[in-house]
Amino acid sequence: MVHSTGANNPNLWRYVQPDDGLIGVNRHGNSFNEFHPGGRQVCAHAFIGRKKDGGIATYQIMPWNWEAWHSGKGRHGSAWRMGYIGFEICEDGLTDRDYFKAVYREAVELCAYLCGMFGLDPVKDIICHSEGYVKGIASAHADVMHWFPQHGKSMDIFRADVQKEMCKRKEPDMDELKVRQIVDDELLKGTVVYETLQEVPAWGRETVKKLVDK
Predict the structure, then answer these.
(1) The pTM is what?
(2) Sign of the CA dihedral 147, 149, 152, 154?
(3) Of 40, 112, 128, 155, which one has the greatest count of Cβ atoms within 10 A?
(4) What confidence score (pLDDT) does residue 81 get?
């Protein structure tokens, strides 16, 4: 479940502490690891936002397989009770295209990583908070559809981008590589390789040129 923070503060230090030397110090006592009497009734598995050097990063703050109070409750229950992983994208003023592009890309990569890890289908299994509300498994929040469309994105586009990222990451295993090498070796046995069209015998040059042009 994709969330965004609903506040104009893109800095990770606002939500994630203690400082690891990269995110900065929260001196206001309002990060998500502060103790409050009665407990903090909200949590997420990770945050995406800006480090103190301006770079974008993902910070995981609890194990992916722990229940985190990130969805609230809808008419059919709570997404967090159903096993949904939830992460927050730190909002800025919502108009900075470069910032949005960077955190959007980070979110795509995070979801591709998580879908690969847990065998999830990005098209069927990824939703945002507002979609969770429509499904009745989250509270009435607008994120992220109050932000994504301002930059030409929707959750359908996001899911498709995650799927593309997963396909790009799929590497052939060693057995597949070995088979490819054997096939390549067999195909090349006794084969004469011509580096240029001029090296091809005259009787086949016209046909080869047509193939190359195609």
Answers:
(1) 0.78
(2) positive
(3) 128
(4) 93
Q: What's the N-to-C CA distance of the chain in angstroms?
A: 46
Query: 15-33: per-residue pLDDT in tens?
Result: 999 999 999 999 998 898 7
Beta bridge partners of 46: 60, 87
Residue 90: pLDDT over 70? yes
CA distance 148 to 93: 13
* Best CA proximity match to 122, nearest among 111, 133, 134: 111
